[in-house]
Amino acid sequence: MVVIEKVLSKEQVSAYRQQLAQCPWGDGRKTAMGMAASVKNNNQADAQDTNVRQLANQLLGCIGDTPKIVSAALPHKIFPPCFNRYSETEEYGYHVDAAIMRIPGTSEVIRSDVSMTVFLSEPEEYDGGELVISTEFGQQQIKLPAGYAVVYPSSSLHKVTAVTRGQRVAAITWMQSMVADTNLRQTLYQLDQSIQKLINANKTDRAELDNLHNVYHNLIRQFTQL
After folding, report:
1. What is the mean pLDDT of residues 119-130?
2. 97 assigned binding-site residue
């Protein structure tokens, strides 16, 4: 699980919220698969709406422009982002994301390796609504500032607790990673982040950095699935 700061600026979040307020929304259960439908109680922006598609494409661009997301997820394919909204009493019980997802309007499918939530509401705008992810270290509760995101393995059991005040708006998407193994992907992320810190500190010999880069990219070559 990795928290990504400022995927969207405050200005971008405000623009998203204003445009989403004008878009058509529907029962989120219609988009759930299998057992997840019985525990899903929220609303989802109409993915067929032109403005919703435009917002989703803009968010895809922001994802590609955020190095920490690329480092953490190593995305090969990305499902078009969806926008959900939880009002008072609404929640999404424990579920696991579908392993295989068909991209709407196409015959293309992706394997969900990495899930991502981008928060579009500030924490003080609502009570409840925490994203709870079951990990090997116990349950992790996530409630981040608007514009921040969290990425986590799609294999994780997770839920969104009931909103008791206000409204929680977020974007969600799933990625098929070039590296399917969660532990290996996490190790590669840690290695890449360590290299970036050494570069920014500007205290490490260039030859040593080149060696580390060589190791990292050769590991990517060895384990990448395209």
Report:
1. 97
2. yes
